[in-house]
């Protein structure tokens, strides 16, 4: 079954036509005539592939460039960004967008309102958040070759928890790291509360391991709303992906 990405020609709110056209030229290496065909008014299938990851990358890139698009599997619509609705995972839960790290090595499916941040952690591989609702995510990566070979994911999770605890104000650990069910990779999670500028906050830490790397995913928000966000945060960790080496993008119409 093929996945198809449909370019709608509709700009997102807050994006000018000029900015959107510049994004098409820069992100997809399109010339004037190719862009003119895309903007002719007809809905256009810009990618047809059996690789869902690749289709999602095109949708995500169009979104970042200011353009709405639709994702289909056969004749079934999976996601429509202009309506922020659909079915399935990861893109099509309401208002969710798959976001990639700068080097395209990892990705997470996040609410569309979460934007790139560059001031959360100077060592972060990935950092995004919603400054209005004060919800954030940071991902750090550790090369396993730099660690003892006998270190397990459980050990690493406990060590990361203690490091985080030592750096926060008024920290309190809530339990021990436990496995997160229904995850793509072996994953342990644990909660930690603290204060940031006298505001109580609560973290969910997720530690993920693969053959070469350990990843630590930090998600946090104000403590007063954490219980209502926990299910979302756990799903964001489940949706974490270690991406294959990126290949060139091609858009045709």
Summarize the structure.
By secondary structure, the protein is an alpha+beta fold. It has helices spanning 17-28, 32-38, 52-64, 153-167, 223-238, and strands at residues 3-11, 44-49, 67-73, 76-80, 85-86, 96-100, 106-111, 115-116, 126-130, 135-143, 169-179, 187-196, 199-209, 213-222, 241-242.
Number of helices: 5
Largest sheet: 7 strands, antiparallel
**Sheet with most strands: strand arrangement:** 8-9-10-14-13-12-11
Unreliable stretches: 84-94, 246-253
Distance between the termini: 20 Å
Helix percent reads 10-25%
SS content category: alpha+beta
Based on CA atoms alone, the radius of gyration comes out at: 20 Å
State the CATH topology of the largest domain.
Protein Transport Mog1p, Chain A
Name the CATH class of the largest domain: Alpha Beta
CATH architecture of the largest domain: 3-Layer(aba) Sandwich
Give helix and strand order, one letter per element, not per position: EHHEHEEEEEEEEHEEEEHE
Count of DSSP E strands? 15
**Total number of distinct structural domains:** 2
The outline comes out as elongated
- Let me know the CATH homologous superfamily of the largest domain: Mog1/PsbP, alpha/beta/alpha sandwich
Strand content: 35-45%
- What is the averaged pLDDT score? 86
């Amino acid at each position: 079954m093929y996945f198809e990405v449909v370019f709608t020609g509709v700009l997102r709110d807050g994006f000018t036509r000029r900015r959107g056209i510049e994004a098409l030229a820069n992100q997809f290496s399109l010339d004037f005539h190719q862009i003119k065909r895309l903007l002719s008014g007809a809905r256009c299938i810009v990618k047809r592939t059996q690789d869902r990851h690749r289709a999602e990358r095109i949708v995500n890139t169009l979104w970042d460039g200011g353009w709405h698009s639709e994702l289909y599997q056969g004749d079934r619509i999976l996601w429509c960004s202009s309506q922020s609705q659909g079915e399935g995972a990861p893109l099509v839960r309401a208002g969710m967008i798959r976001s990639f790290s700068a080097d395209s090595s990892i990705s997470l499916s996040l609410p569309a309102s979460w934007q790139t941040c560059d001031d959360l952690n100077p060592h972060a591989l990935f950092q995004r958040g919603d400054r209005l609702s004060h919800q954030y995510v940071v991902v750090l990566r550790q090369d396993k070759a730099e660690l003892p070979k006998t270190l397990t994911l459980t050990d690493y999770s406990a060590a990361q928890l203690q490091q985080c605890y030592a750096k926060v104000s008024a920290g309190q650990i809530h339990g021990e790291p436990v496995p997160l069910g229904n995850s793509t990779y072996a994953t342990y999670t644990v909660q930690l509360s603290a204060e940031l500028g006298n505001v109580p906050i609560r973290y969910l830490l997720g530690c993920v391991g693969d053959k070469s790397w350990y990843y630590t995913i930090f998600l946090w928000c104000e403590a007063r709303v954490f219980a209502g966000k926990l299910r979302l945060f756990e799903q964001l960790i489940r949706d974490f992906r270690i991406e294959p080496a990126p290949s060139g993008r091609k858009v045709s119409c």
